[in-house]
Design goal:
Layout: H1 19-33, E1 38-44, H2 48-56, E2 60-69, E3 81-89, E4 105-107
Parallel strand pairs: 2-4
Antiparallel strand pairs: 1-3, 2-3
């Protein structure tokens, strides 16, 4: 089973109140109920605050995806940016096998290939 969420965010006025932790706990419970092996998420490698938060929630960097976030073509657009694919094993994977990547760095076209 796969449980997918595309994006989560917490408005600045509600940060540091445990909202993100509550959201992630709910996602993990839903994933457990669906008998998933892990939860994973993508985060910009420049987003040190989010990376630290997810690590505190028990997630680890599974692999890096090169140029996952597109910067844009307009003048002064930010450059493309890599993402970390971060994962947390669930109870169906007690040995954490889903946290072992075949390749530590991949390109976006390799994301869904076998």
């Amino acid at each position: 089973a796969v449980v997918s969420t595309q994006s989560t965010g917490v408005s600045p006025q509600f940060r540091r109140l445990g909202v993100a932790h509550t959201l992630m706990n709910q996602l993990e419970k839903i994933s457990e109920n669906q008998k998933c092996y892990f939860v994973d998420l993508f985060v910009r490698i420049s987003n040190k605050v989010a990376i630290g938060m997810y690590k505190n929630f028990g997630y680890s960097v599974y692999r890096q995806i090169v140029e996952y976030y597109a910067g844009g073509n307009a003048p002064h657009s930010p450059p493309d940016e890599d993402a970390y694919d971060m994962r947390k094993a669930l109870s169906r994977d007690p040995q954490g096998k889903s946290l072992i990547a075949k390749k530590k760095v991949i390109r976006t076209n390799e994301l869904f290939s076998n």
